[in-house]
## 1
Amino acid sequence: MNQYQKLTEMYSTHPFSASLRSVRHKPYFRSILYSSLVIFSIYFLYKFVHPSTIYTQFKPFAGDLSETYAPADKVAPQVWQDRAKSVKAAFLHGYHGYERYAQPHDELLPLSNGYRNNFNGWGVSMYDSLDTMLLMDLEDEYARAIPFIEKTVFSLPEGQFAPFFETIIRYLGGLLSAYALRKDEVLLRRADELAEKLDHVFATPSGFLYLDGTVVGPEIGILAEIASLQLEYTTLAKFTGKKRWWDRANTVIRALEKANLRDTGGMFPIGWNLSNAQPKDTHLSVGAQADSAHEYLLKQYLLTAKTDKANLEMYLRATTHIITNLLFLSPTRHLLYVTDAQFPTLDHKGRPSHRFEHLSCFLPGLLALGAHTLPLDDLTSVGIDLEHLGTGIYLLAGYNLKTLHMWAAEGLAQTCWLTYADMPTGLGPDEMLMHTVSDLWRETGDSFKEGGYSWMDAISKWKRSGARGAPPGVGDKTPVTLESLYLLWRTTGNSKWRDRGWRIFDSIERNTKTPSGYASLITVEVMPPAKDDDMPSYFFAETLKYLYLMFSDNDPISLDEWVFNTEAHPLPVIRWSQSEKDAFNIP
């Protein structure tokens, strides 16, 4: 047995892990609010599971690997329809509990039947649920919510400030998505009024927003906080015809486009100077404090009907750097994972932490969406000059880029799924440390010696040996968090992803249901799990929406015509008229 085979991957669970989250936890404010990020998070579960901080062996819980991870037999269409109905019933159970005990406050406490106001006190669970109600044809619940929406006063007591990031993705995103589906004018009017209330946060020299909605915020901004508003503000500009909202989104896009990324290989770091819109550190991550910013690069390109080439170039630079520098294989089970790293180093490899966050589980879905919607094998056809993508793109020159992105998507999805399947509860931890031996990465001054478990190194060796069998880290094991799981089902048509979604939903039903809703879990490692008094609004916005759409035969959300924001609110693809381009100064 060699030194690598002696190791098993280890995971560390943190007090705010994920069990209902369909994407991943959102950065900065959430990471402060929930203390550990958050995930994406399928992005999809940050605080819904709260495991204790321990280290334990990371191995299957059901003994026979083939039995635990084997795909189910072919399921009849009627069974999937019945499963969609079960998800709708779960939504009604949780939302009726919210209506009875918590409305118009933010969230229900499902054990005590109390409530809490953790996101402005404006009824975030209602706003996050509007489009899910419409997609599920829940007209009565929608009709009961509208009077509350009309009466909401978008204000806070003196000395309190709205968390901008959460307010945009939950409240504004929820209003805009519901308006796109129903065209009730009250929804657009309230969205416009909310944006007006928040507009002072952009009073910085660079146009980047101040954090936490403060008028005079800190000088250092967090990537996901400053670069996760483009979808919502672009959509608001289209719906209202107001150039100012387009300018808010476009200012962020152009600032990111001009940023000096020489020290980070073309990828955006976490910390930013709000005064000059330049990077403040060299910490690279796709997890907490960064996830949705990377997500919005591709999604803004898709939202604008593939017309903003700058977003596409930024997405390609980021994903190229991720694939060539941040993807690794674990030493024992050869699981593909993405980690964060500090750059630069003398060997330009960075300092990887080998920490795999559940929040990063949005990435396989994003890669699959990109492979589905972009001509990755012929980028010149959309006007992309490879010289603008940095040197990393040439490291991938011997591969079909579309195929490579799908390999990465499926391998990461499998690892994310196994974090669920390995737990007795069937629900996943928030964070894992993929342990490595000391000489895999040995610190020598300011550089690290590579030990050979870079994914691209493994892929290169596999290719040189004849490319026999599946690519490294891409065996047939199964998928991921719910957004990624949903997108892999939609882009590949492989029903195994759908089946994994059902297994997760079944675990949620068995382990988290209460008489009035669905509770968080204090730990995912023991049965029966102890429940926590918490039901986050994204349970309605993301978890149940993605599950319902995954099981429905007639999914009304075409990936060619709609783009999900980071809180799973679908927004329609925008096609600017010539008069709009002239009015907004859009090239």
## 2
Amino acid sequence: MKSIPRVILCATGLVSVSILFLITMPVEREANVVGWSYNTTRNTTNYIPVSGNWTASLAPERGVCDRPSLLVMMVCSAPANIEARQAIRDTWGSDKKIQGHNLSAYFLVGETNNISMQVFNVEASYLRSHQRCQV
């Protein structure tokens, strides 16, 4: 009679372990994006043009690739948002070293048809810091 409770206990334990295993299994799901259906592709090359005239450049004297970084933040900005970029540099966007790891922020700035704004923006950004990518 003692073997029946052991069988029940073993069966209960086996079922419990199986349920825990199924619950904790990783499930790969794509994030829901507002306005996209389930079958919409998340492949970014379908949405971002990669033709020959789409380029980005970093100021080479900055030495962006010379030091490994734990986190590199790319901040998108319009050319006219000079004050906003400076506020970011003065606050959370400045280069930091936390627990021996480098954290860096760079600005991804679009082009403008306003030539004077473009020239001013390039010169001002170069003088402040070399944290700028031109797209």
## 3
Amino acid sequence: LDDPAGNSFIESIGTSDTRLSKTLYERTREQLQEMGYNVPQANDTHTAATAAPPPPKHGADLPDHLRAANWDFSKSIEDNIDKRREEEESGNIGRDEALFFEVDCHHCGTKGRQDMCAIDIPGFRECLVMAFNCPHCGVRNNEVKAAGAIGDKARRWTLRVTDPEDLNRDVLKSDSAAVRIPEIDFEMQQGTQGSAFTTVEGLIGKIADHLQESNPFTGDSSAQNELSAFTQTIDDLRKLCSDPSCLPFTLVLDDAADHSFIGRRHPERPQEDDPGLTSEVREQSMGC
């Protein structure tokens, strides 16, 4: 299997499988183009080197028509999008505050509506909210992505969850973030699940639901011991949020792009008043 996207998998038998090997490599220009990336031409390097540096910008580099205001974090993304549509149709907000366009539905192939706007997450940065709705088959999904450039270094967030109040902390997990919970020996690599803006409790619940609904290795052909271990992992994830005896535990977000975030208990107080949350930067590495 040679997958430039890195999204393929072959199961390993035991901890040391001498017949199975995995190699990470740099993508070629042709592979990047096939995956849809904008690859600069050879003469662009000289142009970029000699061009004057752009003026410094504050916040995310977003066009005005993607900037939005008055986002209600107490409501779901779909409800916020629906509210903005109603306000837009009634003329209460300008047309340049949100962007929407038609895209093909990934489920039925007909045209659906993709909405996009920007929100400010307190203590973090501007993020893009994207919500898709297909009027033909009813498919709806949403995604939150941090705006701006990829960070110069990777960032690791570590939260010690000691009481139910920690479960209500805001969390932005990007699709480039790996998730670890050492107490239950759980690790989810980057790219396994899409991005989400939720709470600690909501993130753990989404991970458990995703594993239960989308994992292709839990069918009737799976070995019983592996299926039992996988089911136990899902049960352990759900107990973290429902069983007080599972406290405390540690949640780690390791993001190579520095696009993830865990909120403080009291954002108005200094970081020193929140010893359960730490953030550290590290050098990026291939496959991190």
